[in-house]
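User: I'm new to structure prediction. If I give you an amino acid sequence, what do you actually give back? Let's try with this one:
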Amino acid sequence: MSVEGMNILHVAGNISYGVLEAGSSVDQLDIDIGNSSNIGFNYFHNKFGMPYDFLLKSSLSSGHSLFVAVKDTNKLLGFARFEQISEETERTYRGRTNVVNHSIHLLRSIEIHPAHRHVGIGRLLFAIAVNRLKTNVITMPDNSGAARFFKNKLGFIALNTKSSGLSPRYKGYLMLPYPRARSMLKIMAEDYPRMVMPELIGSYEALKFRRNMGKSITSEDISDFLTLFESSKELLDSKLEGEMNSFIRGFDFK
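Assistant: Good question. You get back a string of structure tokens that encode the predicted 3D arrangement of the chain. For your 254 residues, that looks like this:
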């Protein structure tokens, strides 16, 4: 079983990251709800008494962008909800159109299953989301721990309502400017390649080990590695990409 209506944007191991496009997709998710005898999602249930399927469906029906991390076929590990509050503006000069101001999205919430926190799933989910949205992001953390996460882990800064053009009602919010949002996924891949691209790194290290040990490497093994390499090339830093290209050139493909 897979989640219908989920547009998969990235796969890392047995975790798929994507955006849900229909409320019916929520019904297919396996959502652990936390209680006294079970670890699971609990923030919205405890604070607002809100069922999670209702929360996620309401987000979609309101036109919000709903990004999810799903383990195996349908186990929900995390979600992030974004609401667009400002559209991008463009200017055309001499037949060339450029974006003058990028859109602004409000991160309404991000929550990761308690059993899967502190391993990078939340950061990767967020990076994939903002890479897809191509936007500035603002948010208002509701506790000091969340504020530290947004500032220290994701690079948010204090929002200047005057320069952003937003209403004073957003005073006190944090903002992740578009230039940093745009590069976040690539930076994560450079800093944590094994987390972002586990299949590629695992294949590369296994093939290097086999070659160093004088063991045979089949054309199928190389083909599988090349497929992973080509699909992840845009996330590789120049050093690792150079190493892999050099490794590939060491094989005779005749």
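You can read the tokens as a compact description of the fold. Here is one thing that stands out. Residues 31 and 76 are 6 Å apart (CA to CA).
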